[in-house]
Amino acid sequence: MLVDDHPIVRSGLVLMINYTPNMNIVAEAKNGLEAIELFHQHHPDVTLMDLRMPEMNGVDAIVAINQEFPDSRIIILTTYDGDEDIYRGLKAGARGYILKNSPVDEIVNAIRKVHNGMKYIPPEVGEKLSERLNRPQLSSRELEVLQLVAKGMSNLAIASTLHLSESTIKYHVNSILSKLAVSDRTQAALIAVKRGIVNH
After folding, report:
1. Whose CA is closest to 109, among 1, 12, 23?
2. Is the pTM of this model over 0.85?
3. How far is Cα 105 from Cα 109, in angstroms, rounded to an integer?
């Protein structure tokens, strides 16, 4: 099954996969909600799942599918390689991660490996993932604060949005800067966007 909100990407992949011996597309979805519905109907052997889509994103769809079908074999197929995207997708239960600009034979190889019960993570994606795992983790509150910092909000504005005191926000911001190893809010916001912690 193919899940992607761009018709051109889907039709290209359909052609590519249907031309590959012993492979064919049984269903196409344009968002996470459709993916869940079509998964119930078709029980695909392997699912290629985009991450960023309208109505429901790929990570939420993977979580929902895996809760019902723990042996589902899902590969994330995306243009994003921010380490937060990789981490969230694999943590949700994806068995593979591949970039859309990968050569055809690499995508086919990923599908075969995951179909055979293995994981597929290209070396450059693996490197980013291990960097992500070795860094101090931001708490869920810190992630919330960082998302608002990335929107350019002041400590006072963040405090009123989250119903916390300004000194609490200041504490969180200092903790975020220290964990991200940066010296100011602008650098923190840039890193948040680059790593996929916040979406542009």
Report:
1. 23
2. no
3. 6
